[in-house]
Every structure is written in C-alpha cells, then in structure tokens.
Amino acid sequence: MADTKGPVARPLSPHLQIYKPTLTMTMSIAHRITGAALYFGTLLLAWWLIAAASGSTTYSNFHWFMQSLVGKLVLFGYTWALLHHMLGGIRHLIWDTGRGFGPVEREWLAMATLVGSIGLTLLLWIFGYLMAGGA
Amino acid sequence: MSGKSSMRTPLARIRYLGSAHAGTDHFWKQRVTAVALIPLTIAFVLIIISLVGRNQAAAIQIIGSPFVAITMLLFVLSGVHHMWLGMQVIIEDYVHSEDWKLTCLMANTFFSFAIAITCIFAVLKVAFGV
Q1: How far apart are CA B97 and CA A16, in angstroms?
Q2: Chain A residues with CB inside 8 Å of B88's CB?
Q3: pLDDT per residue over A4-40, tens digit each?
Q4: What pLDDT is attached to residue A19?
Q5: Chain-wide mean pLDDT for chain A?
Q6: Distance CA A106, CA A91 (A)
Q7: Residue B5: strand, helix, or coil
Q8: Are A93 and B56 in contact (CB < 8 Å)?
Q9: SS3 B88
Q10: For A3-17, A85-99, A103-117, which range has the lowest pLDDT when averaged over its residues?
Q11: A92 at the B interface (CB within 8 A)?
C-alpha cells in the first residue's frame, strides 16, 4: 500500500480572486446576498404582524423601534434589498426565456437592476416622508 | 435520446425525473413563486406605505380588510416558499460537511414554517378580530 499522507496540493482551477470584478458578477453576488438578507428580514415582517395582532402597546413598541435611527436604517436596507432582489429576479426571468445574454444586453440589465433599485428605494422613502409629514 | 446504449428503463426516461427523482421541480417552483411575487411585492410595498406613521387601530383596520388580508396571505405564502427554496440552494452551495448540511437544511425548513405560520396566524387574527 502506498503511504497515505493526506491530499496532494494539486493546482486548482481559477476562482474568484483571479478574475477582475465585473458588474454582472457583482450583481449576481448582490442577488444572493439580498435574498439571504430578505430571508432574515421576514423576522421583521413577523414581528410587525404579531404586534398588530397583539394590541396597541405591543404595536407602539414596534413603532418606536421603527422610528429609531437603527430601525430606519434596517427598514431602508430592507426596502433596497426587496426591490433589488425583485428587479434582479425579473432579470433572471428574462434570461430564463433565453434573451438578454448578449454583451450589451447583460451589461444594460445589470446596470438597470442597480439604478432601478436605488432609484425606486429613494423615491419610496421620499414618498413615505411626504405621506408621514402630510398626515 | 440514445436508446440502445442506455441502462435506463423507458419508463424512467419518459418521467424526466432524473437521478434525484425530483426533476425540475425545485427550479420550477422557484420560478412560479418568483413570478407570483412580482405583483405581490408591489402590493406589499403599497400596503406598508399606507401604514407609515399610523397607530395600531389604523393598522388592523387596513390589514384586516379582506383584500389586504388576502394579499398579505398570498405574499407570505409565496414569499416563504421562495425563500425556503432559495436558502436550500445557498446551504447546498456552501455547507459541505454532511452533518452541518443536514442540520442547516432542517433549520431552514423549521425557520420557514415558523415564519409562515406566525404571519398567517397574525393576519387571520387581525382579519377575524379575535
């Protein structure tokens, strides 16, 4: 029997650290990260609904947290993650039909996902502030 | 498909289920829930905006109205199903030790069901006013 000295250090195929970061690569990673963030963000959704079902005191606590700086940052991040993942998902659905893989289209789609999600998030928050200020 | 060289039975071949016996089930459900979530997410965002700065009494009035309650239930159901499938893929990609992988996959299922049941229970409680 040959000696078993553990795995031999074989050359590995190139991985992330070899490639120059590209926009499409970054948007792919962002899609997964926002998805994972939304996964844990459902705790916020559950808290909100349970608070509403529990009564005015519990809801006031939730409301207090949401109006704090930390709460606002979390909700802002949640808004962007939700919109980014939705637009990224639409991009994936377009790809599922076999369209949008060309060098121009894929860059355009990646850029549209990013600009769209940031733009929509800002618009929603401005609208939300106007609503809250007007009420 | 090449018929003669294959060891697979004709029945196995036409079922299109492959070696894992699930076929494109996972992929397909991910897409169906994704498509459902586009209008539901937009509706969810609008519901949240209508509640900005309002107190509990106003919140339960809005959440408890039939159209909003049904929309919220659909959003929670498709959202949780979608994230359950998505987290499964993330775990399978990054967790390689068999023990840890099984633990994470189970935790994913428990978390998803707990969130789904919690949200559904809360919406129904608000809607039925008990």
Answers
A1: 22
A2: none
A3: 667 778 877 777 777 888 999 999 999 999 999 999 9
A4: 80
A5: 91
A6: 9
A7: coil
A8: no
A9: helix
A10: A3-17
A11: yes
Question: In chain A, which residues have their Cβ closer than 8 Å to the Cβ of B118?
Answer: 46, 49-50
Question: Which residues in A lie closer than 8 A to residue B63 (C-beta atoms)?
Answer: 49, 52
CATH number for B25-128 (one of 1.20.1300.10, 3.30.830.10, 3.10.450.50, 2.60.40.1260): it is: 1.20.1300.10
Structural domain boundaries in chain A: 33-134
**A86 touches B: beta carbon within 8 Å:** yes
Q: What is the CATH class of A33-134?
A: mainly alpha
Q: Which residues contact B83 (CB under 8 A, 6 or more apart)?
A: A35, A38, A39, A42, B112
User: Is residue A69 scored above 60 in pLDDT?
Assistant: yes
Q: What is the mean pLDDT of residues B48-69?
A: 93
**Confidence band of B3 (pLDDT split at 50, 70, 90):** low
Closest CA to B120 of B58, B77, B67: B77
